[in-house]
Amino acid sequence: MRERPAQAILLLAFFCISLLHSFLFHFYVLFVFPVVISYFFTPYLAEFVFLLHRRIFFKIRIKARSNRFYYRFLISNITLPKIVEYSFYPFLFFLSILLQTAEPTLDYLLGMKAFFTTLSFPFIFLLSSVMWVLDQSGLRYVDEKNQYIERIGNWFGTKFRGFASFFVVISLTFKLLQQEPSLSLLKEILTIGGAVYLQVLLATFVYLKFGMRRDLEKFESILVKKYEMEPERVEFSLKKTPFYFKPY
C-alpha cells in the first residue's frame, strides 16, 4: 500500500514529461498508460464480468457466495502466437477509431491533434486485458445437467471481438465512401496500421509477460476469498462413449 502513492507520483511525472513533445506523449499513451491502467484495474473489472455472467445465465438472484456452477480449469502457457492473437483485436478496434478522424495519417497520429483519439486506446487495452485475465484464470461455467462448458473469457471475448470487427467494417466502409479507393489511400492505412500495431504488440507482450501474473493472483484471490471457490484447478480427461447407431 505504501508503494502506490510513490508509483502514482512517478507515473504523473512521466505523463507531465510526455506533454513536452508529441512523440513522447504518443508513446506514453499507446504503451505506458495502457499497461499501467490494466495492471491496476483489470482484476476488479474481471470480477464485474464474472458477476455479469452470473446474472445473465441465472434469471434469479444467486447467493453471493455460491460457486456451484463455476470452476477453474487447467490452462496452457502463453506463447508468442497467442500474444500475436491477443494483440490483434485491440489493434483493429483502435485503428477503426483512427479511420474515423479527419486526418488518419501518421503525422496526425504522432501530433497533439490526436490527443483525445489516442486516449481511447488505454481503455480498449483495459477491456482486452480483462478478456485475457478471465481466459488465463481458467474460469469456466459448467452445466452438468446439459453437458455444457463455457469459458468466461471466451464469452466476454466473443462480444468484444464481435463489436471490434463490426466497428472496423463500418469504419472502412465509411472511409471508402468518403474517399475514392486508391493506392495512396491503401498505403496511408497500411503505414499508420503498421506503426500502431508494433506498439500494440509491444504493450501486449509486456503486460502478458510481466503484468498479468499480478492481476491473475489478485483475481484468483477474489474468487477464493469472496466467492469461496476452490483454490485448486480442475483437471479433466475426455471419455469415449459408443455410438447410438452402428457406423458403416
Instruction: Please state roughly what percent of the residues sit in beta strands, choosing from under 5%, 5-15%, 15-25%, 25-35%, 35-45% or over 45%.
Output: under 5%
Radius of gyration: 21 Å
Count the strands? 3
Largest sheet: spatial strand order: 1-2-3
What order do the helices and strands come in, and which of them pair?
Elements: H1 3-18, H2 22-57, E1 70-72, H3 80-99, H4 106-110, H5 115-118, H6 120-136, E2 139-143, E3 148-151, H7 152-178, H8 183-227
Antiparallel strand pairs: 1-2, 2-3
Helix pairs in contact: 1-2, 2-6, 2-8, 3-6, 3-7, 3-8, 6-7, 6-8
Describe the protein's architecture and organization:
With 248 residues, the protein is mainly α. It has one domain. 69% of the residues lie in helices and 5% in strands. It is built from eight helices and three strands, in the order H-H-E-H-H-H-H-E-E-H-H. It has a three-stranded antiparallel sheet with strand order 1-2-3. Strand 2 and strand 3 form a beta hairpin. Helix 2 packs across helix 8 and helix 3 runs parallel beside helix 7. The longest helix has 45 residues. The chain is globular and about 60 Å long. About 3% of the residues have low confidence.
In short, what is this structure?
The protein has one domain. 69% of the residues lie in helices and 5% in strands. A hairpin with a 4-residue loop joins strand 2 and strand 3.
What tags apply to this protein structure?
248 residues, mainly alpha, three-stranded antiparallel β-sheet, 8 helices, globular
